[in-house]
Automatic annotation (TrEMBL):
Annotated PANTHER family: BTB_POZ DOMAIN-CONTAINING PROTEIN KCTD9
Record's protein name: Pentapeptide repeat-containing protein
InterPro entries membership: 5peptide_repeat, Pentapeptide-BTB/POZ_domain
Length: 271
């Protein structure tokens, strides 16, 4: 259970659930009950916490980069300001968690439950959120460049002023979401559900809205978008296309590895 982390710090954590600023690097803490533990500022790089109960735990300012938290229960945990680059949170439960200002670049968040979580000001650039649940989550001003939200559930989420450029939102559910002032340049919204979403002031330059549901959406004109798409579809190859406001990101022969906008394979599930 001790791994290569500092044994004294691990023993203190197990005995008291207190290890502020401790060295828990590469520690084996899988499937333990650490609910309510205080590991704020702790070093947990490469730690093994899969299936661990971390409900209401305090990990603010901790370094959990590249840690294994598959299936961990982190409901209502405080992860504000964490360094979580490349962390594996597959199937983890983070409902109501505080993640403001967290660094989750290239994190694996596939099928993660993050309903009503606060990710304001966080960075999830290049992260994999396929099938993630973020109903009524707060993502205001969040860096979501190149993230993969395919099939994600974002109903009622607040994404105002977020940067979703080059993000994949294929078949994502964004009904009633707040996307005011969001950057959606070159985002792929193929078959996405934007029913009742607020897109006032959003930048949709180059975005793919083919098949998107836009009933009741605010700040966008679905009839015009549909008419322009149809006009684009009937153009000959030599016809000018400068007036086309929405450009599909799906191109025949385009390599799948560049779908995240970085030319890198996505973490987590294979491309």
């Amino acid at each position: 259970m001790n791994g290569t982390g500092n044994n004294a710090h691990i023993k203190r954590l197990l005995a008291t659930k207190q290890c502020q600023g401790g060295n828990l690097q590469d520690a084996h803490l899988a499937r333990l009950n650490l609910s309510g533990a205080d590991m704020s500022g702790a070093k947990l790089m490469f730690a093994h916490l899969n299936g661990t109960n971390l409900r209401d735990a305090n990990l603010s300012g901790a370094d959990i980069s590249l840690a294994n938290l598959v299936g961990a229960d982190m409901v209502n945990a405080d992860l504000s300001g964490v360094d979580a680059k490349g962390v594996n949170l597959l199937d983890a439960k983070l409902d109501g968690a505080k993640l403001g200002g967290a660094d989750l670049v290239f994190a694996n968040l596939v099928n993660t439950q993050m309903n009503e979580a606060n990710l304001s000001g966080a960075s999830l650039e290049g992260s994999n959120l396929i099938g993630a649940h973020l109903e009524r989550a707060y993502l205001t001003g969040t860096n979501l460049v190149g993230t993969n939200f395919a099939h994600a559930q974002l109903m009622g989420a607040n994404l105002s002023n977020g940067d979703l450029s080059n993000a994949s939102l294929v078949e994502a559910n964004l009904s009633d979401a707040n996307l005011t002032g969001a950057n959606l340049r070159n985002a792929n919204l193929l078959n996405a559900n934007l029913t009742g979403a607020n897109l006032t002031g959003a930048d949709l330059s180059g975005a793919n809205l083919e098949g998107a549901k836009l009933d009741g959406a605010i700040g966008i004109y679905p009839e015009n978008a549909m008419n322009r798409r149809r006009s684009h579809d009937t153009q000959t190859p030599s016809s000018p296309q400068t007036a086309m406001p929405y450009v599909s990101l799906i191109q025949s022969g385009a390599p799948r590895a560049v779908a995240n906008g970085f030319g890198l394979p996505r973490p987590g599930l294979p491309s």
